[in-house]
Write a structure and sequence with these properties.
single chain, about 260 residues, mainly alpha, Four Helix Bundle (Hemerythrin (Met), subunit A), Helicase, Ruva Protein, domain 3, 2 domains, about 90% helix
Length: about 260
């Protein structure tokens, strides 16, 4: 029963640790996907910056297409992050900071650059330069926020990986320790049961040898509570029967 209990305890512990490791592996996979999408989002932001610069140089057709391409790069990653991140979490706050800068300062600056570039304003070069300055500042802020965001996801990956490794190490330790304990208990039980069986049998063998030599004055006291005890009692009854037979023979000889 003790060995069964040990096996059940080890199995339950290893199963629990395996489930936790599976959860952590899922977390690691998700954090890697989040990190990858953040990198794609940042590429889209940088593409918008380059497109705005091209547009400001008078290449409105090329710049306009590049702005469209930049949005196509950015939007899927943006949608994934907004849908995946838990609102109110640290990661959501970090990404939302970058997202808000993109939605307002960056888009406003790009819209102004496009509008000014298509106007006949005599001072549009200076105005475009001013808007480009706003744009560069805003994009630098987004880059910093996204970099902070990605560092946080990598920290989460490292923490989850370390925790998963700890569960694996604990499972290995439990398995080795438990199997060692089971082996020791098995050996101890084998020795105990062996002695419980062999010692009474040895005692019976010694008595049988003495009885065969005619020594009938023996009392067998085996209290194991099992078949060996019954055997001892039967053997004792046999000795008693021998004693009675010997006594009757002696009385018969004396009468003769």
């Amino acid at each position: 029963m003790l060995i069964v209990v040990l096996f059940v305890a080890v199995g339950a512990t290893v199963t629990y640790n395996t489930m936790k490791m599976a959860d952590l592996q899922t977390k690691v996979k998700q954090q890697v996907e989040i990190n990858d999408n953040a990198a794609t989002y940042q590429q889209g932001i940088d593409a918008k910056k380059f497109a705005a610069f091209v547009y400001s140089q008078g290449n409105t057709e090329g710049g306009g297409q590049m702005l469209v391409d930049a949005e196509e790069i950015k939007m899927p990653a943006e949608a994934y992050l907004l849908a995946t991140l838990t609102e109110g979490s640290e990661l959501y706050a970090k990404f939302n900071a970058a997202y808000q800068i993109d939605q307002y300062p960056i888009n406003n600056a790009i819209t102004s650059i496009v509008t000014i570039s298509n106007s006949d304003d005599a001072n549009k070069v200076d105005e475009i330069r001013t808007q480009l300055g706003y744009l560069m500042t805003a994009i630098s802020q987004v880059d910093a926020n996204v970099a902070d965001f990605r560092n946080a996801t990598m920290t989460n990956v490292e923490d989850a990986t370390t925790e998963s490794q700890n569960y694996a190490n604990f499972s290995a330790t439990i398995a080795i320790g438990s199997f060692t304990a089971i082996a020791l208990v098995s050996v101890a039980l084998a020795v105990f049961i062996g002695r419980r069986i062999t010692n009474p049998l040895k005692k019976l063998t010694d008595v049988a040898g003495k009885v065969s030599m005619g020594e009938l004055d023996h009392e067998i006291d085996i209290k194991t509570g099992d078949e060996i005890s019954d055997l001892g009692e039967a053997f004792q009854r046999m000795i008693n029967a021998f004693k009675m037979t010997v006594a009757l023979n002696q009385e018969t000889e004396e009468e003769d």
